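Lab notebook, bench 4. The sequencing result for the construct came back, and we need a structural model before the next group meeting so we can plan mutations. Quick request posted to the team channel:

Model the 3D structure of this chain.
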Amino acid sequence: MLKASINSLAKSIYGDVVANRRHLHQHPELSFQEFNTVAYVKSRLDEMGISWKEMANTGVVGIIQGDKPSNDTVALRADMDALPILETPGREYGSKNEGVMHACGHDVHTSSLLGTAQILTHLKKDFGGTIKLIFQPGEERLPGGANLMIKEGVLENPRPSAVIGQHVMPLLDAGLVGFRAGKYMASADELYVTVRGKGGHGAQPQQNIDPVVITAHIITALQQVVSRFADPKSPSVLSFGKVIANGATNVIPNEVYLEGTFRALDEKWRKEAHIRMKKMAEGMAESMGATCDFNIMLGYPFLVNEPKLTAQTRGFAEEYLGKENVVDLDIWMAAEDFAYYSQVADACFYRLGTRNESRGIVSAVHTPTFDVDESALELSTGLMAYLALRRLGND
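Done. Here's the predicted structure in token form:
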């Protein structure tokens, strides 16, 4: 009965969900600047008669209380921010904010949770328990909107027994969802490094302390932190994506500037690696007559899906979609600020398939050509409603 009711409601509101998604896609806003986005969300919650509270400046949490008796609470989370990417032109629902794009599917997450709220509102008289709707800002930028909302009490009064989130995955076909229990996504720290030497004429290297050559040694040597100190059973990634040496063909600069990322799935190793990287870089620079400022900006922690909750949630997904449409996920070394929820509460973060090769919808997230098969929006709204109500003991 519950599955049939939710299926019917998901079909009936599908047009609304697509319209919400396209509106959000056309009006993307960067992290912690989601003023119009959150105003839109609030207006939709008001239309549904859902009470809400502002949090973290551009975030909002709504509350749906079932009419039947229950003391349990489930939180459902969607992020709302976009990325500084210029969208490929030609789409009827393309971004109207030039240089800003929903290239990570947060428009899908937000419109899906609004759709889920519509379904749950229709079913209020039939279920017991409380559902928190977390519309979160700033997932794409430190310190992370999840971090701020937790500090402001989003997981209190009442405290949920589970926090559930979904994220688009263009590697999975629309119609599929994926789960992984335990450690799933990596911590992510930002590295900012400056190597200072003594610049001069490129034809007279003996008179200089060449920071370019020294930096090359440091970059190569730092890879040994991962290859020779990390436990090979626990993945780590160290990558430098920016190297600036403002010299010329015959000019050795005074300094070289680097930016990179370090990712891990173990907090003890993460801290140890920070010490090793800093010590190695500074020591190598000193040994060659230079200095090195090695600064680490702590990012998101690793994301862990609580095993019992994840097994239960996967089982509910199989009830709703059929076992053939629920797949296993591998470890993913990208980072997500949903990890903050998973560090302080039982949490499950699963993936929503949005790929459609026949329509050319195959681009990765964070690219100008990213798009989704909107048929996934019917599944995403109904599934999340089903997961929440089954978790609350409703059948």
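The radius of gyration is 24 Å.
Will bring this to the meeting.
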